[in-house]
């Protein structure tokens, strides 16, 4: 079985270092001339799949925008995931799950067990109930070749109050998360399956990402104000592991399929200029 890290490494080599999010904000639905209902959501998601599913390495549906429409929205999420996988994109479901371990086990089954309807290649998870509480996710990911991206240093301005706080041993809370995830990737080649989320907006915070061994998802580009050039400041020597992620910046070019493709191509060109090939 090929690990998620190996599959991601290959996808980025073939398609380039880019993740595009599917975040159907009500404002974007309106700009695309779509209704703010399940039908509009379905059309939006299908358009993104048609435009980008066969060319972008990773597509990241944001679950919240599908859950807004209840069972119909989740059914559309299921079919969006299938369509993306059929077109060869890796699907990273942005759900930012985190809970006590026994409940995390159920989340892990929902997203990382290949027999389940919402099965995806990888999910986002929150470690702020303790990294150890996510163990069932790590176990199921390892068992089935999936991936988990754990929040470390998030792109929002509220993040540092929690993430930069000092743990008992003097490290920042985020650094403890970074170090624990690094251990999970020990010896993984060519890339570990356990990633971290580090916002492109955060500047140089002095955190040590040099031993992570897995992918570094970098949201916050475009709509939140960061540019590809900012990745240099945030990631320094760890740039080869960075997977830049854009949502509104690319989606705003729709609904025209050619315009969406051109926006993704521009984003990819900006990222290629900064992010060297993965080691
Ligand atoms: O895990 C994420 O993807 C994430 C982490 C983070 O620190 N900041 C962040 O913006 N995100 C997600 O990345 C997407 C950013 O969207 P845009 O600001 O439109 O590019 C949203 O779906 C956020 O939920």
TrEMBL record:
EC class (word): lyase
Enzymatic reactions: orotidine 5'-phosphate + H(+) = UMP + CO2
TM stretches of this protein: none
EC number, as in UniProt: 4.1.1.23
Gene3D superfamilies membership: Aldolase class I
Domain Orotidine 5'-phosphate decarboxylase: 17-263
Family the entry assigns: Belongs to the OMP decarboxylase family. Type 2 subfamily.
Matching PANTHER family: OROTIDINE 5'-PHOSPHATE DECARBOXYLASE
Protein name: Orotidine 5'-phosphate decarboxylase
Gene designation per UniProt: pyrF
């Amino acid at each position: 079985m090929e690990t998620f890290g190996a599959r991601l490494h290959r996808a980025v080599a073939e398609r380039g270092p880019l993740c595009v999010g599917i975040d159907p904000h009500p404002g974007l639905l309106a700009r695309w001339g779509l209704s703010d209902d399940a039908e509009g959501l379905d059309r939006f998601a299908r358009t993104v799949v048609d435009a980008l599913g066969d060319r972008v390495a990773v597509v990241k549906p944001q679950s919240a925008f599908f859950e807004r429409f209840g069972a119909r929205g989740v059914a559309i999420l299921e079919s969006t995931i299938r369509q993306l996988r059929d077109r060869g994109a890796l699907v990273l479901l942005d759900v930012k799950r985190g809970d006590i371990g026994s409940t995390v086990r159920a989340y892990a089954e929902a997203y990382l067990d290949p027999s389940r309807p919402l099965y995806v290649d990888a999910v986002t998870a929150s470690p702020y109930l303790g990294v150890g509480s996510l163990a069932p996710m790590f176990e199921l990911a390892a068992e089935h070749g999936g991936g988990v991206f754990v929040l470390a240093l998030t792109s929002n301005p509220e993040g540092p109050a929690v993430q930069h706080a000092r743990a008992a041993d003097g490290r920042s809370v985020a650094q403890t998360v970074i170090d624990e995830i690094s251990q999970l990737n020990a010896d993984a080649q060519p890339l570990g399956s356990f990633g971290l989320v580090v916002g492109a907006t955060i500047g140089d915070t002095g955190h040590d990402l040099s031993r992570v061994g897995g992918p570094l998802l970098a949201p916050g580009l475009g709509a939140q104000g960061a540019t590809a050039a900012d990745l240099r400041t945030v990631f320094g020597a760890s740039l080869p592991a960075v997977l830049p992620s854009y949502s509104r910046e690319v989606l705003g070019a729709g609904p025209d399929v050619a315009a969406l493709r051109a926006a993704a191509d521009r984003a990819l060109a900006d990222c290629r200029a900064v992010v060297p090939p993965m080691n």
